[in-house]
């Protein structure tokens, strides 16, 4: 068998079918998740929750997602992607349906936080990308990762106005029930992702901790993991608190929903561009540029008076930079270590991303409750963007010399 970093395994279904099914799964899963910010105002008002209590439930969701992700990736690597994604979809749907019947902060933290977060992790596009990684030739992986990320962004674009329409027409509780039922569509689609990543001939089947220890010994991987924290901080804070922030600035809830949709629309372009140029230019420099541009975009948004035009312009700019980090980060992980441990080691990087998400969501609610404003968190987002840009510059884009899979 050829080396895993230069070849691909034959998928159980035609590659095009696998990619299409995986992209639809990514779109549904991400579309539902990114609509949760639209529920901030109606749910906190009806249930008497503080902004911090709601933010904590969303923060726990991101943390549970992050903690579960490496294990979900390792499980998919070993037992197969289809079963993993199908189980995740059921748990995800259960969590969203449970949100509709959670009357207080404690139960909301359990359903919206723990259950939903675990479900997202097990059927997330990170697991889908592991299926792509084992089936797509190495030279095309970053591009296909970009396609998968663009598909997840289309889900954000499509589900934001749909979810807001459901809320307006039927109320937030019924809207959550409809979203939960939509997640069940992932189960039959997961059949196309059958298969697991096989061991190359002559290479050891390393246990989780041993593989992680060898990977963590690679300095570029450590920088990548630490920098990914900032991506999670930006995305979660903006996704959950941006709609409420715009209402605070005098705009309508519909503007908030369309802002999230515009981010998703422009991220389709950003993700495809990142996937394309990631195969031609140094990935670490592209990542540094993305984080620098995020800091500039946020700074400009804070300096200019908020209006519908500036909200949509900011959403377009952030959309181009939104998940464009994902194909580049996943591409570097695949380059460093090959496809065998893609699910697990990208999952570890994603855990850092979700720690950032936890801090961004919770801190947004906490700062708002304490000060009546989100300004401090916006300023912190600028500083973190600059720091992450600096962290990515020293990354060395080559296979990790200390990640040796052959048995001693």
UniProtKB/TrEMBL annotation:
Pfam families: MFS_1 (PF07690). It comes from the Bacteria. PROSITE patterns: MFS. Residues 15-399 form the Major facilitator superfamily (MFS) profile domain. The keyword Transmembrane helix applies. The keyword Transmembrane applies. The chain crosses the membrane at residues 12-33, 53-72, 84-101, 107-131, 143-163, 175-193, 223-246, 258-278, 285-306, 312-337, 344-364, 376-395. SUPFAM superfamilies: MFS general substrate transporter. Keywords: Membrane, Transmembrane, Transmembrane helix. This is MFS transporter. It comes from Devosia psychrophila.
